[in-house]
């Protein structure tokens, strides 16, 4: 790492936190690395990496979130529910293709099942792999468009009865995005902007590549650059890209009006449906695993820690990684991005999680 001491903050920050982030950064090898912390609204941002910094500061570039996009889709669903436009118990097939003949198990799949990975659907459609494998390291999703995702859902045969088992599924969350678009008559990208990005002031967040130089460039393990991710028909599951500062803004919204969070008097009043949605996505909803030890909300993984519950989600693309997390009880939020593809011995997620769960 050649830039371990480069620290830039958009508020005075905390010298102690800056030292903590600089030390944590030593554990991660990536051309570009950003570790960003908000503690009761006070931000500290550490940037570093083995690559050249470039003309655009690292914390102002947009990074691919991969599966860390799902909390955005979850908040979108929760807000549409708060507005009365859909219900968690609505059946996806009825909204997506009314009257179309589907398998009985598919007919029972609700919007809640799709978001919480309890639909019984596989991680990806069975016919996804033949077209993806030949270009697995360059563009596996681009050749599988939205209409194909929808057709795969309508002809699916779920492995388990909906609501009975947890199985992580990009397929299911992607179907949710297309279902919300069909139910509202609005494209998912527009819905996300109207209901989530614009209300939260996330001007540095989008679902498509930005102007030249605005986006971070991902890398393979050998340091070779990779092209920007094309998610094809899987946009709701992994298309979001954002600057680290926008990631903190998104996380801070989940902390506002909660014990230890930012003073609500410091910000303009929010729409009550947005507040209701932010509360809904933080509420523990289901348990899974051995002795039901793993807890989940609608869209966040939910773990205990010595300092209160932590809510988080990680994501990875062909050449980038992201981590988002917060502690509702103590006003702490952590956002981290790196531009190197994940590998078996990768320390990125463990390092970011440690900052969230182990920092007093």
Overall description:
This protein has 360 residues and is an alpha+beta fold. It has one domain: Beta-lactamase (3-Layer(aba) Sandwich), CATH 3.40.710. Helices cover 31% and strands 14% of the residues. The protein has 13 helices and eleven strands. The chain has an eight-stranded antiparallel sheet, with helices on both faces. Pfam families: Beta-lactamase. This is Beta-lactamase family protein. It comes from Streptomyces anulatus.
Give a concise summary:
It comes from Streptomyces anulatus (Streptomyces chrysomallus). By secondary structure, this protein is an alpha+beta fold.
**Residue share in β-strands:** 5-15%
Helix content: 25-40%
Strand arrangement, major sheet = 2-1-11-10-9-8-7-6
Instruction: Write down the overall mean pLDDT.
Output: 92
CATH fold assignment: Beta-lactamase
Low-confidence stretches: 1-11, 258-266
What is the 3D shape? globular
Total beta-strand segments: 11
Give the number of domains.
1
